[in-house]
Design a protein that fits this description.
Number of helices: 13
Keywords: Lyase
Order of helices and strands: EEEHHHHEHEHEHEHEHEHEHEHEEEHE
GO molecular function, one term: magnesium ion binding
Low-confidence stretches: none
Protein name: Mandelate racemase/muconate lactonizing enzyme family protein
Organism: Limobrevibacterium gyesilva
Strand order of the largest sheet: 5-6-7-8-9-10
Helix content: 25-40%
Largest sheet: 6 strands, parallel
Number of strands: 15
Mean pLDDT: 94
InterPro entries: DgoD-like, Enolase-like_C_sf, Enolase-like_N, Enolase_C-like, Mandel_Rmase/mucon_lact_enz_CS, Mandelate_racemase_C, Mandelate_racemase_N_dom
Amino acid sequence: MENAASMRVVDVRCYVVPAEWKELVFVLVECDDGSIGVGEGTITNCAAPVASAIGDMAAYLVGKDPGEIERHWSTLYRMFHWRGGAIQMSALAAIDQALWDIAGQAVGLPLYRLLGGACHDRVKVYLNQWFRGARSVADLTEKAQAAVATGIRGLKWYPFRFVPLSRQAYRFSKAEFDGAVGEVAAVRAAVGPEVELMVDLSGVADAHTIVQFCEAIAGCDLLFVEEVAPPENPALLKTLSAKVSARLAAGERRYSRWDFKDLIETQAVGLVQPGVCRAGGITEMRKIAAMAEIYNIGVAPYNPVGPVGTAATVHVSASLPNFVIMETYDDDSPPIRREIMDVTLSIDGDGFALPTSPGLGVRMNETVLRRRASVATSHR
């Protein structure tokens, strides 16, 4: 591989690949020495707009030195007058990951080494979507025990997932409330005290219900309670943080350091949850984490994405002194992932071992990508 300073971007390719529960959005940035960096900007229900934004950004990037990552991030953020938000920041995240992948390949080092080295010997994970198909408490506890039997030591789920959207945030029945509390107690009893448990409320309940719920599950020793208030109502989050003893977590629907500023400065949460595929990529995620560290707030990265985003999350998590635990999903589409990836990272027990391959350490089979993609674009 040529010296990174002499390289130039010659093509930016974007692929949207349908999967079981969301479309995966991938970017491949190719340089004139033949090196290819990969990135991911997967976002639920918005793949086409993200792919379009990637095309807009590609027009700037082609011909540039891929090593000037900070310059490119700043330019690509500011070139949009209507900046920020889920679409622009997901597109920027994908390109940013690909540029960091190229940088790691250029010097033959795994990415976390370029970010200052490892602060952790392993990257601990918790599992989401392990509960799919559970319609009763018995189903749920059986699935929890099955997940723990694989070596996983962290589980998260949505105890109010069956409440209709029309009544969320306003009125729960006693049966719905008691059922949610009962689920938490039953799962804790099923997996024992050594497994980290977390619940995500997705901003669906009013303040009174949240306080009651957190009091009712206090004896279950949860690692955190997520999104007790919707992102549109930061004042409610601050109010609730003063009323409950549970550690609160939030941030999956915030997309930049500016979005996280008030969340961190008010110290309304014990954990922030930026996503490397949503909050501007590796470059921005590290800045958000540094802001949180000032206030002794930990980072628990949001990561409901595909294999490239997961690899990027592993690398950045390994480099953060205030990293706590990262999200990963029960593999929703293993045939697709096996087909589109030549090399990927896999969970070993309760987390990921530190990668050893250069860059992100994952490689994609572009022939299969072209065949499986619903959208495939090239920008030279």
